[in-house]
Description:
Layout: H1 3-13, E1 18-20, H2 22-25, E2 26-28, H3 47-52, H4 59-68, H5 72-79, H6 95-107, E3 112-115, H7 120-135, E4 141-143, H8 156-164, E5 169-173, H9 180-188, E6 192-196, E7 210-212, H10 228-240, H11 247-259, H12 266-277, H13 284-294, H14 302-318, H15 322-330, H16 334-369, E8 378-381, H17 390-401, E9 405-411, E10 414-420, H18 427-432, E11 440-443, E12 447-453, H19 457-469, E13 479-481, E14 483-484, H20 492-497, E15 513-526, E16 531-538, E17 542-548, E18 563-575, E19 578-590, H21 605-618, E20 624-627, H22 629-637, H23 646-658, E21 662-666, E22 672-676, H24 689-696
Parallel strand pairs: 1-13, 3-4, 3-5, 5-6, 6-7, 8-9, 14-15, 17-19
Antiparallel strand pairs: 1-2, 9-10, 10-12, 11-12, 15-16, 15-18, 16-17, 18-19, 20-22, 21-22
Helix pairs in contact: 7-10, 7-11, 7-15, 8-9, 10-11, 11-12, 11-14, 13-16, 14-15, 14-16, 15-16, 16-17, 22-23
Amino acid sequence: MDHKQRLKLKRLLLSRRWNIKEGRNTVFESGNTGELAAEQEPLSREAAPAACGYSQYHPLLSRIWKARGYSGAEIQEIIYPIEIDYPSAFLFTDMVAAVGLVQQALEEHSKVLIFGDYDADGLTATALLSRWFREKGLITVNLIPDRLRDGYGLTEDQADLIKSYDPDLVITVDCGSSSLEEVKSLEDSGIKVIVTDHHTAENRIHTASAFINPQREAEDFPLKGLAGVGVAYYLVRALEYPQEPDPLYVTLAAIGTVADVMPLRGVNRRLVVDAICYYNNSPLGVKRLTENCLKSKEDLSASFIQFNLAPRLNAAGRLGQAEIALSLLLTDDEEEAKVLADRLDSLNNERRELERNQIEQADRQVEAEFVLGEDRIIVAAHESFHQGILGILSARLADQYQMPAICLTLEDEVYRGSARTYGDIDIYTAISSCQDLLLTFGGHSGAAGLSMPKENLSAFTDRIQSYLSQQGDFEPAELAVDLELEGQDLTLEAAHSLQVLEPYGEQNPQPLFLLRSAAIAEIRPMGDGSHLRILLELQDRGRFTAVAFRQGDAAILYKAGDLIDVAFYLVSNTWQGIESVNLHIEEMRLSTYAEDEESSPAISRRLIAHVFNSLAALIDVEQDLTFDPLHLAHWLSSDYNKRISSSQLIIILQLFSEAGLGDLRSLRDKNKIFRFRFADERIDLKTTDLWQELFQQGRITDAS
């Protein structure tokens, strides 16, 4: 079994907790039937709609609303997003001052410079304000830092560059909150500065002439969740008051909001809905890029932005060519829009190829330098790594190896990089334990950035490995499931009813459902083999088509006849004019009902040898294997002449542990961890108390 096959199988052997929201957040795991206490029973399908006050809607919606704990006002927002009011732009403390500065600049035909950021949020914000000024007859200077050369935000070097343009007014978008000294330098040079941003603001009086940031406002401020482009849009709303801005601006605001993973509740939900309604008013470049993505006129949905537009806009910034994306968002020329949209497609393909190549490079380094199952974090450093994709690379490695990962690239004798966590590890705290070795670091529990002198890399790696090894076993993150459905719930009517909840996004995710004990009637690869098409059979309910995107490796473990539980999205699909229900599988696992456990399972020496040899091919000595016993037993059965139960497997692993051949321990859920121990001499399992007990009970079938 080669390295990649081991990795694929290890991921499949693990199960994470499925936390069911309906009722009282039932954790669905082995031995848990999901039943609720009598006083916590969910509303019946008949009673639920009336109890929620929306009897005209499908009962599935009412169950979702109740499971998520939505209030009546929140349900109203979900159903009627077009009726969400835009709070006044003048709730921002410095909005009046900002409007005054802009109006003065227009009256005096001043030179205005917009300083943005290289990601989709910053680019759409820059385009939004630049287009507004152009509409008023004033052409702005637009300055976007180069991600690879300049780094993020308004730095001292960028402030000096701004001065060289000799502007009268500077407006920052999606940055500037922490650049107090740099802004002061501009103001002292006679340049007025308006900072528009949404990042955390320091608890100090800002040096800008106007500082517009929802994070500086009172706790009950109604616009906390705005993206950088959302703040820029609110500046335009104030400038246009009492008129409504051109719908074109709301499209740009929606793209940046979704791309920056802002909550799709309240005003942000209204932004995205307005963008969908006014798609025909979108900037020409957005339309051409949309057509390139799917070759058809698609609605500007949140998922379309997230998976199609945002990656293309971000690819330009990641590769140091953000000006191409900005030009696309600004152009009104048909031919130029087509050329730029094609160029963004090429850059996105280039980014994908770069990711593939560098993941292969990182894999080689991990295989050569790290002991999987013993090391607690991957620290991959290579001067060939591209700075623009370090975050993506770290996320891929964390998912692939099921541990936190840090990727670093070398420049001017300094390693700079990004970190991503896995499971419940706080990666920011782990990195901060090494802060004396670092030049800079920042982030949060899930992701962080850092830099260090080249000579500190080895000490840093040792220190953070030691820190994490002292934190104990870490668990994979839970999967939140809205409700459990049964076969009779899987109808086209139910699938259609879910459209009321769109657009989906942060804080309003697509509903995720649980279906138990579905038999695999057929399983086969789709496309290039990275996806699976599975035909599921439910007792007395017929067959349903399911698709497992990016889960082609699951065919290693699952086969026709297996009984599985699935966490899935309910959708409708039309093929050759016929519409049917489809299940888009998020995760699947063997059903707890697939195994009829014996109260006193028997084992044999042949079975023990099979388990030992199979595990020895999967993991090396002193490596941890985290597994769901049901899954590992199922895999072990695949090349054995009879089914192996999870109880038999656990008994054998306990025998190994008692004999000093291994170590078996349990996590807080049904997953367990096994590690082979190094043995200097031959070990005889018959000397253990457990063997003697099993022998006396007659549970070793060939003990002689």
